[in-house]
Amino acid sequence: MTTADIVLSFVALLGGLAFFLYGMNVMSHGLETMAKGKLERSLKKAASNKFLALFVGAGITIAIQSSSALTVMLVGLVNSGLLEFGQTIGVLMGSNIGTTLTAWILSLAGIDGDTLWLQLLKPANFSLFFALIGVLLTMAGKKQSQKNTGNILLGFAILMFGMNLMSDSMKPLTELEGFTSLLTAFKNPLLAVAFGAVFTGIIQSSAASVGILQSLALSGGVTYGMAIPIIMGQNIGTCVTALISSIGVSRNAKKVAVVHLSFNIIGTAICLAAYYGANAIFNFAFNNQEITPFMIAIVHSIFNVVTTFLLLPFTKQLEKLANAIIKDKETDKKQTFLDERIITVPAFAVSECNNRTLEMAEYAKTAITSAVGLIGNYNEDTVNNILACEDKLDYYEDKIGTYLVKISSHGLSESDSKKRFRMLHTIGDLERLGDHAVNLIKVAKEMKDKNIMFSDSAMSELKVLINAINEILEITFAAYEKADPLLATKVEPLEQVIDGLIATVKARHIDRLQTGKCTIELGFVLSDILNNLERISDHCSNIAVAIIEVDHGEMDTHKYLNRIKYGGNASFSEHFDEYEIKYSL
Prior knowledge:
Blueprint: H1 3-35, H2 38-46, H3 50-64, H4 67-79, H5 89-98, H6 101-106, H7 116-121, H8 123-140, H9 144-173, H10 177-185, H11 189-203, H12 206-218, H13 224-237, H14 239-245, H15 251-282, H16 293-311, H17 315-325, H18 346-372, H19 380-407, H20 414-450, H21 456-482, H22 485-488, H23 491-514, H24 520-552, H25 557-566, H26 570-582
């Protein structure tokens, strides 16, 4: 080989590696987007049972094709206080099994045979069809799910192109004496383990690292004795991602990375000792034979399954080991509200933001219902609870809003973009609900301090109005939680009825004022209460409209409200009449 040939082969090798890693990234991102919030729900359901956690960990890793991404998610969830450290161990073990699927798919590249069907089974061939279908779906697909599927197929096709390019570039290199000597050095198992760990740590993907080893095996020269310890080292190297993500997090979150690393090191030590101990006794004949991509997939699976089931009974001991390495401190109790590490899986991050927004809605609902209950029944404990809710609402709005802005730069799907838009339009209204709850506290305190009370007729009218306010809160928050635009359409008719009720209460107050049954002082108090209740119903209307706009793809609130109010909308009229009868004075 000439120097030019050697240089071109190395360039092709690096180019193939670039295509392989890019394809893996595109495919993984597409799978993550398709999975959406199911990842988070599955993780939380599995947390209580280590066997269920094992299967869920394997399933999620298969779904997103990245054990590293799953580990980063777990670090973020523990750091945010959404999962306990001990609940992640089974999931981590399952991820080691799930990551073996990629090797099985890539092992098809080693299929030999001249028949058409055998040739079509080779990824290098069927990935061309995937590329064609992927391009068509990405360019012509109308639904986001179709575009996501197209990205997954394109990612796989690019990955396979990179793998073939690496394999082809390796064939002339294997003829070089120096390169052969380099491969021979990997007959030292400790050196092979170290190489597997370091290389995987650099590219931060054990699935990709195993795929590269398979492409090297296609060109020949890689024996079982070299490949087996390299595969074991690759499992240690994949922990680098978790270790990096654990920088600057809580001690409990650091323990996730420690367990991941200790699990793989212990598993590697046991299997390496068992394998070479057995080889010393039985002298395995296949040790110096060339390994195929298919056998690499088998070895990879056997190693991960064996280490998982060997150590699964010792999850408590692994937990104790992590606790011993990372000791807790009394001062280390602060948790991250929304961990930025989760942003690496945008669909997951959006789902977590939605969960926090639902928590915010509960605080807003509690604040309002408690505040209206203070009218004529002032209580300091209730006031303190409302003020605590208001502090939470301010904090949530700031943190969620900032986080949603950061998420926007991470390639959201159409569905997640809609959720983000809905949350951005909701959190401000939720925070304002807390402000109105505080305003009602001031009114209730004024009534207590001045020892003034409404007449029975005025209190009776207020109770009807408060019942309507409680119902509009219930409908609004239920519609948001379920993302139900049909339920949200019931909010605006009730808001209109509430406006009518407020106008009626004001008119009746003027009548009582003129007959001397009420005072001007009470009139000021009543006006403050009615103004706040009216604004509360307005904010509920804003939230409901955001839900409907996102569903319909419209962003013009005034146009939408004018259309349903004055456009002869039968559903609006039907609900309006129903509420008007229900809350008649």
